[in-house]
């Protein structure tokens, strides 16, 4: 700090060591006045000084110029205003606690060593170390006391005359006598020892009695506490046992457990589950769907999401958009709103003959079906997981016997399920790695694969050794493929159809406008490819409102069972709006499987298809498996051109050796019996043929199958 020339100052020095290694210290020291400023009245200077200074490489405190020591103004300058200020010093030395303390510097002391005064401990928080004036040495004080001589004379004056030996002996004798007297007083012979023994015995007896009493009290308390703990545990066990017993009594006596349902499941004898309650035949996740599946003996697949009130509802999507007339997330609707104002829109997928269904709560499903049929239960939204677990834990402790916990491979809920005894079905996605499966394997009972997976991937999952279920299955051809790969469980949107191999009937009731079991569009759960039922003047007619080259399988009537002479397929067809003259719609038949059939496409299995062009030309084609184009068999028959919105009637006759196509309206036409035995499968369906404009698509009605 620079000061005016002639102003008294004190040079404060400080040499410190590193507290850890003993070398030179590193760090800083801060000096702060305890007043905001000092006015030096003789100089006209107002001093506000404070500063922080560091140690050099030798561990010495240096000023801003690197010179050892820091100059500070004394605190007792006679012309300082205010008087009696102090310096607050703060040490920040690396490896040592920060220390703060006060010092007061004097005009009479031009130098001060901070390393000495800061070590003082006054025991007071504001103790001030004061550096006083330098005192006289002992020799100087001797001279000041009117003595004369050198330092040697001073030292010699400190030595007194020799003492008397007699006096020393007398002192020693007196001291010895005194010590003997004191020792005798302190030492008590046998009497004192006896008294001490009695006192010790009494003390020991009292101590033993006290300890015995304490031990008795502690033992009584411990026994009481232990008894209370055991009683509480016994009570809890009794309650749990009673709850378990009550739960067992609650379940039907003819309970269908998960293990019993899956016992003996093999690829040759797979098990079927009602995916979404059979959602390709009945409105998905509705009570009517669940009841139908349960009545046919199929386990239920139930998805749930939670509403704004915390109630769990059976719903695959987290939103209401796809399956109801409402929109938005379910968790933004209250329980009352869902129960009273939300209806499913199954009619758009399954036909206008359906009545709109109300949504069903998980509680209602569990109360009605738990114990009667296994349930694969999955909370779909993350916010539904904990409410589902809580509901099961609290109200359905017996659920693990009849419920399979269903979850995606990414779930964190499997440990919860396994600790409670649930079987788990974990389904994969196309990006699931073997390493991910390995990490979850210990908590998985059954694996789930999509029907879109390759044969190789499905075989890899099967090879892991645990039962594999596939989804979504709605064709018998899918069942054949999957069981051939080792799959033992089918998650089916139409379990009645895919679990059987016989036709359900031989004539249509399309006028009821209700989708039939066995109807196989190109894609399931997609209204774009759903069969469209005519209404009003078109009641009883059906059509396929999708492009290009779409078809619709009629598994309800398949496989056709003919007589020894063969069978006949009869139907009506019309164009409401006529297409271009060469464009055609028609019908396919003779396929050995219900895999998709599309005109102009390489299909998995072959068959025949009818061509009815807008020009009136009528033809039969044979479509070989794996080939995109068909081959005409027989001749082209020129019939009367179709009339818009007017029915044409057709018959297809199949015998063991021939096929024949007839148009039976008006005067009637026929291809004649064509000798061809290539395809004799029993699967058939509707075909949009080469239609490119949906306004010109064909319509069909009055399907009837008879034996020849």
UniProtKB/TrEMBL annotation:
<feature type="domain" description="GP-PDE">
    <location>
        <begin position="270"/>
        <end position="502"/>
    </location>
</feature>
<dbReference type="GO" id="GO:0008081">
    <property type="term" value="F:phosphoric diester hydrolase activity"/>
</dbReference>
<dbReference type="Pfam" id="PF03009">
    <property type="entry name" value="GDPD"/>
</dbReference>
<dbReference type="InterPro" id="IPR030395">
    <property type="entry name" value="GP_PDE_dom"/>
</dbReference>
<dbReference type="GO" id="GO:0006629">
    <property type="term" value="P:lipid metabolic process"/>
</dbReference>
<protein>
    <submittedName>
        <fullName>Glycerophosphodiester phosphodiesterase</fullName>
    </submittedName>
</protein>
<dbReference type="InterPro" id="IPR017946">
    <property type="entry name" value="PLC-like_Pdiesterase_TIM-brl"/>
</dbReference>
